Amino acid sequence: MTATAELRRTALYDQHKALGARLVDFHGWELPIQYESILKEHASVRQFCGLFDVSHMGQLWARGPGALAFLQKTNTNDISRIGPGKAIYSHLPNAKGGVVDDVIISCLQKDRYLIVVNAATREKDFAWLKKQAAGFDVELEDQSDYYGMIAVQGPRSAQIIARDFPEAQALPRFGALEAQVFAQPSVITRTGYTGEDGFEFIVPNEIISRLWDDLLAKGRSLGAVACGLGARDTLRLEAGYLLYGQDIDGDHSSLEANYGWVVKFDKGDFIGRPVLWKQRQEGVKRLLTGVRLIEPGVARPQSWVVCDGKRLGQLCSATFSPTLLAGIGAGYLNKADLKPATPVVVERAGRSTAAQIAAMPFYRQSGADKNA
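Above: the chain sequence. Below: its structure as C-alpha cells.
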C-alpha cells in the first residue's frame, strides 16, 4: 500500500478531485494545497469570499455540571465570559506554561461546550483532557469522525449564507448557534482564521458534500472560490494567527508567542498559571516577533534573523504576502524589546536580505476585533 493510499480523506475528497485540486499530505490527511492558484484564492478571500474544507479539524464535546469549572482549569482564557451562543479563542496550557493546543470553544447551552481542536493534535488533546477531567463532573466525547467542517471566509460571506441561514447571518463576531442544515442538527459559528469576516459550518459528514456544492454555487456570482491550505496559510500569517506545531507548542508559552491577551490571570487558578505569572512579572526572554523584508524576496521558515551582527533567532512561519507584496515572517527572537522598523537581516542558505521588525498582525481588516 502506498503512503498516499494510507492518508485519511475528508468527505469532500471527491469535490476536491472534481475541481482539479492539487492534493498534499497534511498531518496524515490528503487535502488540497490549491485549486487554480494560491494568489488567486488569497485575493478572493480578501476581496470576496473563499470556501475551505477544514473537516480534518477535531470536534470535542464537554458536557455536565462541572464542564465550566473543568474548562476554566484547562484553559488560559476565561471561559466564564461566554454563555450560550458565544465562542472564544483560547490556549490549553501544560504545567510548564507551554501550549498543548490552541482551540476555539463554543458554549451552545448551559453546561454544554464544543471544543474545536487542531487535526494533528486531536488524539493527544482528547487524551490530555480526559486525564485532567479527574474530579470534575464532566463528560467528554470525541465526535470528530462524525462531523465535517466548511469555513466560508471573506467580506461577502454573510451575503452568501443570508438567504438559507438568516439566523447565522445575524450572529455577532464569535457567535455560535445550533441549527438545522438540510434537516440535520449542526453548529454554525462566526469566527475564522483568515483576518476576514466568516462562518464555520460543522455538519454531519452525510450532508457536507451537498452543503459544499450549494454554498459554492450560490457564491460564484459573488466571487467565491474554493481555497486550499496554501491560501489558508498566507491569510492566517498576514492576520497574525498562530499555527500549532510551527509557531506554538509545548515548549513555548502564550506570553512568549505574544498572545498574552489570551491569558486571564484574574479568573483564578488554572494549569500552568504559576509559570505564566512568573513570566509576566519578570518578562519573557524570547518573543514571537514579526519581520518584513524590505528587499525583493520570499521569507522562509528556519531563516535566521540577524541584528547588529548577532543571530537573534529563526523564523517559524514565513511566506510571501500577496496583500503586502513583500516577504513576511515570525520567529522567536531572544531580544524581546525590538521596536517596529528596527533594521535586521534575514539569512538563509548563505543569502542575506535586508528586513525590518514589523508589528503584528501584518494585516488587519478594517473594523476587525480580537476575541480577547
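The chain has ten helices and 19 strands.
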